[in-house]
Amino acid sequence: MTQDNTIHIAITDDHPMIIGGLRNMLSLYPHIRLGEAYTTAKALMDGLQQIQPDVLLLDIQLPDKNGDALVPVILRKYPAIRILALTNMDSMLYIHNMLRLGVSGYVSKNSDPDTVIRAIETVYKGEEFLEPALRARLEQFSFTMRKEAAMKPTLTLREKEILQLTVNGDTIQEIAQKLFIGLRTVEYYRSNLLLKLDVKNMAGLIKKAIRLGLAE
C-alpha cells in the first residue's frame, strides 16, 4: 500500500454496469480506493500518462484492443502496475499466455466480494492470484502442454513453410503459387502434417500447431 495505507485501483471495462458494481462493492473497503475508470484501451493508455494505479482491473476483451496486445504495452511503460485480469473467458490457453505476458492474476466478473478483495491484496503484494479451481485446471493444462511439447514432431523445412502458410490462412492454390510447387505437392505435404500432428482436419492442425509453437 502507499504511505496512506490505501491501495489505489483503476478499472478498464466496456460495460458501465460492471464498473458501477465494482465501484459500489469496493466503497465498502476503506483500505481500497477506486479512482479512474475507463471503457476503452485508448482511454486507459491516455489516462495512465497522467496517473498510474497500484492495481489495474483489466477487462481483457475490450472493443478496441484485446488483452494479449494491451498488457505488454502497459507493463513496458509502467512496470510497477499490477494487472488483475477481469474476465469471464474460460480458455486455458489464453489464460496461460496472459500469465506469461505478465498478468498478475485472474478474477471472474462473477466472483464474490471477498474473492475480489483477496485478489487485489494478493497481486498488490507482488504475488500471483488464481482461484483454486482455476489453478488446478491451469496446472493440468500446463502438464498436457509439456507432455505434447516432449512429443513435438520434427518437421522438414518445406513442411514448416506449408504449415505456417496454412496457419496464415492461405489456400492450397495460394501456397502452391508462393512456393512454386504443384497443387498435389501441397496436398501431399498437408496430408503428412495431419499425420505428424495427429489431427483430423485443418482446424485441428492450425490449433495444435500454434499450441506446440510450430507456427505463429
Automatic annotation (TrEMBL):
Presence of keyword DNA-binding: yes
UniProt xrefs under InterPro entries: CheY-like_superfamily, NreC/VraR/RcsB-like_REC, Sig_transdc_resp-reg_C-effctor, Sig_transdc_resp-reg_receiver, Tscrpt_reg_LuxR_C, WalR-like
Species: Taibaiella chishuiensis
Residue ranges occupied by any HTH luxR-type domain in the UniProt entry: 148-213
Domain Response regulatory residue range list: 8-124
Keywords: DNA-binding, Phosphoprotein
Family annotation (PANTHER family): TRANSCRIPTIONAL REGULATORY PROTEIN RCSB, TWO-COMPONENT RESPONSE REGULATOR
Protein name from the UniProt record: LuxR family two component transcriptional regulator
4-aspartylphosphate PTM positions: 59
Single GO term (MF): DNA binding
